[in-house]
Amino acid sequence: MSVTRILLSWSSGKDSAYSLHKLVQDPKFDVVGLLTSFDERAQQVPIQGTPISAVRLQAKALGLPLVEVPMPKDANNQEYQAQLLSALSQSSLEFDGLAFGDLFLDGIVEFRRQLFEPAGYSCHFPLLGQAPATLAREIQAAGIKAFLVSTHHQHLSNDFCGREYDASLLNDLPEAACPCGERGEFHSFVYDSPQFAFPLRIRKGQQTILSYAYQKVKMQLQTFEVEA
């Protein structure tokens, strides 16, 4: 049986962590590294708001190399694609395909395939098509520990920001909110999982506002410091 060497797109959140959890249990795949793009000026994962320094500690806990892709602030699609493909072609890692934690066929899957497959990389989606409510419970049952690092002002009240991603949070979410945050309601940061060699220690700070004018996005952001 041939094994596909995978570079996993890593946002720092629960979907990425659960994608890894599933991939490492599948003998058809060998995850050889993580791929993260970030705002070069802010030193944060866009929209998510996670500091790239915290992502580096996640990679350390996972024992996986991290391919970092710095992006100019408010990069357009053309710049984003060019930076990604350049980083992949220059990486010293040997890999055959990319994996992503997308759940829905809403255009993003087609976008990824059209971008990466012509460059010779296969695309894999271990969570695609799963029901969000079921997936949310599976993530928690797997032992993945996370908190909400950012929440969308139009979908959730500010008191959700910074909360643990647990059963209590799922019960408190508004009925219209996706339990996995797939419509942008929230983003999470994982500080422990079955694949972590050690948990990360989190010290939460004050909350602030994260805005992206070009996407008309306004997020409540939980600042934090993290130690290995």
UniProtKB/TrEMBL annotation:
It comes from Paraferrimonas sedimenticola. InterPro entries: Diphthami_syn_dom, Rossmann-like_a/b/a_fold. Residues 8-206 form the Diphthamide synthase domain. This is ATPase. SUPFAM superfamilies: Adenine nucleotide alpha hydrolases-like. Pfam families: Diphthami_syn_2 (PF01902).
